[in-house]
Design goal:
This protein has about 260 residues and is an alpha/beta fold. The protein is built from eight helices and six strands; from the N terminus they run E-H-H-E-H-E-H-E-H-H-E-E-H-H. It has a six-stranded parallel sheet, sandwiched between helices. It is globular, with a radius of gyration of 19 Å.
């Protein structure tokens, strides 16, 4: 993985890739089950193929100008799936971190798992904490895995944390603004995503990064996640870079016309 700009200035990344800065891309990795079904395979094999797709995509991301990647691994709603599938998804996080941890550490990738830790098995918590400790000082690339994560749940948790701070006398209700609230989200270490990609052709956010996606560009790609790789990410970034991002303002040309 080619080096990118350090994470120490990650909060300043608010412009376009044309300025030369690294981007934050978030991906809803969708389609594992359908990939397996089309091949008459068990769903578990689709999830395993999805892990390989994640490895390929993370390895190729930095060379494409990406400095932060957030991927949706397991949502708070996924607990409603059959117990065997839930168990397999938990095992896949362990397998990915254990098999790739040393490579990620060598290449300067910082790993963070965002989402609720409650309800996770002790062995899963152990590998999460080990991966975060092992890579805590890396600053070439930030990989966030949203696991037992939901956008609404994260907002509720941030609101509860602020309310508890008020109860302890550490803050006042009048102190709350957007910046303070964002600082209590599980994603506080990273900038807001520039681009959110969803695979498999579905066109929904599905409770992912609800606060953070306010000005993200959305790209939906008709490819099942296990087939995904750097070439698909490159296509999504080409689409992103073709767009005019105004953040609620208007283009200079529009101002001239209006005048």
């Amino acid at each position: 993985m080619a080096p990118t700009t350090g994470l120490q200035d990650v909060s300043t990344r608010a412009g376009s890739a044309k300025s030369g800065r690294s981007l934050h891309v978030a991906i809803i990795m969708d389609g594992n089950g359908r990939w397996a079904k089309r091949r008459n395979l068990p769903r578990v094999l689709g999830h395993r193929a999805g892990v390989n797709a994640l490895k390929r995509t993370v390895e190729g991301a930095a060379a494409l100008g990406v400095g932060v990647m957030t991927v949706f691994g397991f949502s708070t709603e996924n607990w409603s799936r059959p117990p065997q599938e839930v168990s397999e998804l938990m095992g896949l996080l362990k397998a990915y971190l254990e098999s790739d941890l040393e490579r990620l550490a060598r290449e300067g990738v910082k790993v963070r798992i965002i989402g609720r830790r409650t309800g996770l098995a002790p062995d899963v918590l152990d590998v999460i904490e080990r991966a975060e400790r092992r890579t805590s000082h890396n600053d070439n690339f930030l990989l966030q895995v949203a696991f037992n994560y939901g956008g609404r749940a994260d907002i509720v948790d941030a609101a509860r944390a602020f309310a508890e701070a008020v109860e302890r006398g550490e803050a006042r209700a009048a102190d709350l603004d957007e910046a303070m609230f964002e600082g209590r989200l599980s994603t506080a270490e990273a900038p807001a995503p520039d681009l959110i990609v969803r695979t498999s052709g579905e066109q929904r956010i599905s409770n992912f990064l609800l606060w953070e996606c306010a000005y993200a560009e959305l790209v939906y790609q008709d490819v099942l996640w296990p087939d995904y790789g750097p070439e698909h990410l490159a296509a999504a970034l080409t689409e992103y870079r073709s767009r005019d991002r105004r953040y609620g303002g208007i283009a200079v040309d529009d101002v001239a016309v209006a005048g």
